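Field reference: sequence -> structure
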Amino acid sequence: MENKNDRYQKHLTLQDRYDIEEGLNHAYSLTRVAEMVSKDKTTISKEIRKRRVGDNLRLGNYNDCKNRYQCPIQHLCEECDRTKNCSACKKVDCRSICNEYHSEACRYTRRAPYVCNGCSMIYDCRRPHFYYRANVAHTTYVEQLKNSREGIALSRQQLYELDCLITPLIRQGQSIAHIYATHKAEIPCSMKTIYNYIDQGIFTARNIDLPKKVKYKARKKKRQEPEVDYAYRKGRTYQDFQTYISEHLDVNVVELDTVHGSNKKGNVILTMLFRNSNLMIIFLMKECTQECVKQVFNMMTQSLGIEEFQKCFPIILTDNGSEFKDPERLEKAETGEQRTKVFFCDPLASWQKGKLEKNHEYIRKVLPKGKSLEGYTQEEMTTLANHINSTARASLNGRTPYELAQILNSPKLLEMLQLQAVEPDKVVLKPQLLERKK
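Structure field:
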């Protein structure tokens, strides 16, 4: 009969972590969460504190120093002649230059539950946030477990003593199974590990000393998948993007992606979305290649001018599609001048550019999945973009992306791309929008 306490001795599974996240999202106590996953409360507490992730980038310009209301410090800047306190200065963020800066931590993250998952004040709170995410926690756990099991677990002295025991017996003709059965108490590892050590050349004995092993044919190895070269991501990862954004709080981010039709070879749509206004622009490309993407960038650079392009597209965030894996060709103009900076989302993490992914739903209303993109023109893609950008959004307080773009984005960009407003009652987001023009 299974002991009820056996399950308490096992490692947390991915399902256990999902249960923990679900419990935290409902603001359950750690005791109740521990009961849900049949673990001790201290295990849950350690798991949350060890694997929680921070979200400190949301603070923006908000001064979260715990001394901000009574701070008397003045003249942190060498040439500053102002009489007011540095905490009230709007020209320079005093947190970046003050040695007395201490972030005001929330009492709910200093003690149980240690995270903000189920906090009712999450949207009004400006303190640093911490979250428990099951997928992230389990990925970290698996990686740590894998690293802990690599290499040789025995010390040099233990290996020497084991070699002195095993090698003479092997050379007497004894099998590993016989040696292990008769000296099990003296051998600090499994029989499989002994075979591995001999195969790796760690012991004096070699494979040639094992009569049966040299008779066996070498097992066929599983086909190795080609290694992916991630050199293009160096200095351009999502973590690098977050660091850059935290240092340049006012910079506008443009999300970049492609939308395919039924045929992967042929016309493809290149989409860009400006985070500040939700304005989406659409380009039709003949192929989904690095060269075609570069041609779009070069066309806009020539039409806008290098300085205007730098203002419109300072930062670009995209995924790891093959068409974007030569970022230097996108970052530099034909003259060699830097025109933008490209960053990449983490693999299989398209939610990191979620605004653009969400906006693709509007494209799919007109061009459903499985529909070929052959036969369409750039003029029709511009028409599609105009209807999408003229759709009022609840997330924009009833405004349209085009209305915000007139305030937040370059008028020259709107004119160059022939973007214009569509009357509210004439907005069409059905396949008929483009079908009636064909």
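Note: Strands lie at 53-55, 129-131, 253-260, 268-274, 279-285, 315-318, 341-344.
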